[in-house]
Amino acid sequence: MIAASGRQVDAVSIVDGSAVGKLIVAVVALCAGVSFLDGFDILAISYVAPVIGAAWKLPKEAFGPIFAAHYIGAAAGSVFFGWYADRYGRRMGVIIPTAIFGIFALLTVYAYDFRSLFILRILIGIGLGGALSNAIAMVAEYSPQRARATLVSVMYAAFPLGGVIGGPISAILIAKYGWHAVFILGGVLPLLLTVMLLLWLNESIRFLVLSKAPSAMIGAILHRIAPSFEPASTDVYVLPQSRGVSTRPTREIFGREFVRATVLLCIAAFVAQLVIVYVVTWMPLVLASIGMPVTSAILASVAFSVGGIFGAIGLARIIDKDKSYRGLVVTFFLSAVSIAGIGFLAANWYGLLAITFVTGLLTVGANIVLSAYSATVYPTSIRSTGVGWVVGWGRVGAIAGALFGTALVAAGLSIETAYMIAAIPAVIGGIAIALVRAQHQSAVVYA
Asked: What share of the chain is helix, strand, coil (3-state, %, to 5)?
């Protein structure tokens, strides 16, 4: 189509028709760094909890609020920086909170009691929550439609990978240098990543088009994505179904068109994170309470995280090939069965490793692909805000999971009963996603 000012170029069509080249891989890798550090940090606090508890003479129930503090901050960070990114851009919406995370992770070495650690965990969470929600939106907007669920899930799969790698590293650092060393590493790494993001992370191509950035800038990035595309100085870049930059993105996601999907996605994210946090965060303490060595309990947590990596990528590939998110509904229901199974196999070491692997595959896989799905429900103008609310409510669910664990431990329930109760939210999540699909039948609703 030729306009008086030049040809109109659909930027989304060019991205969708391109191969997954170096630029897209770089965006996925840089955003995966954010996800990796999130996974490392969340697992690190669960590994150092017994050591800090012994040093400060804190009962294990005291760590419920400590575990929850990260998620309190992450919920606030996801919502605020999601709004920020829809107004001012995805790039700094990733970079600023990553730097915040690094600074306060380093300052954790100066924590000296429950209150100081609680406050620092909230501030760390603000950074991680904001960075992760915008990293999801960034990867979704750079990904060709045919590989979108896979690329977002590959990026987010670095979250359980952070736990897999962070577990053994944390154990070594604690044994040799004490718990402070874990947070020194956990602070230096995000600050290094901040520098890398400043140097190499491009702004979202869709946000550039939406905000009417210079044509030459947009054309140069599109040429790097699709070398066969030859930009012209007179090109006018557009998005399908473009609404322009939203001045009230929060109002829009709760408006008539999106309120049902927003509420259902938030419910699904809430329960997904609740069960994940209960299973993985409390596992070392719960299993230690029935006489299992701490090192064995940590290995069970690692098996959960490894399963999550395979589950996220495997489920995403199925969804991209099927062009439908119905597999996500089934995964939620199957995860409920596996969660309940943990309690009944806890006394059998090999059975425990197997069931935690399967549970990680299903629960983490469902949670990660849920994030990819939420990015397809909202248009570009409100995507970061929408994803931010979904991720934020996921973090609220994580708070509930941490405190849920506290309640179950304090109640003195058998391990079988505790994990059966923990399976119920996964069923609720499956129902919520089924209802979202009833409203949005296609795998990708908005570009």
From this structure: 80, 0, 15
Predicted structure pTM score: 0.81
Distances (CA, A) of 130 to 85, 110, 169, 367, 390: 9, 24, 26, 17, 12
- The structure tokens listed for 347 are 């006394």
Q: What is the DSSP letter of 447?
A: -
Q: Which residue has the tokens 């505790």?
A: 418
Q: How far apart are CA 400 and CA 382, in angstroms?
A: 27
Architecture of domain 11-211+242-439: Up-down Bundle (1.20)
Render the burial of 163-192: b for 16+ CB within 10 Å, e for the rest: bbbbbebbbebbeeeebebbbebbbebbee
Q: Where are the domains of the chain?
A: 11-211+242-439
> Which positions ≥6 away from 136 have C-beta within 8 Å?
31, 152, 155, 156, 371, 372, 374, 375, 387, 391
| Residue ranges in 143-258 assigned as alpha helix (H) | 148-177, 180-200, 205-210, 215-225, 249-253
All residues at 6 or more sequence positions from 341 whose CB lies less than 8 Å from its CB, including other chains: 355, 358, 359, 419
160 touches 305 (CB < 8 A): yes
- The predicted-structure confidence for 133-180, as pLDDT tens digits, reads as follows 899 989 989 999 888 888 988 998 888 788 778 777 887 888 889 889
> What is the spatial distance between Cα 338 and Cα 423, in angstroms, rounded to a whole number?
8
State the helix-helix crossing angle for 259-289 and 326-345, rounded to 10 degrees: 20
Q: What is the pLDDT of residues 366-419, one digit of tens each?
A: 988 898 888 888 888 888 899 899 988 998 898 888 778 778 777 777 778 888
Q: Which residues face 2 on adjacent strands?
A: 7
CA angle (357 as vertex; 356, 358 as ends), nearest 5? 90
The Cα 196–Cα 108 span in angstroms is 23
CA distance 147 to 170: 34
CB 214: neighbour CB atoms within 10 A?
A: 9
**Side-chain-facing half-sphere of 40: CA atoms under 13 Å:** 26
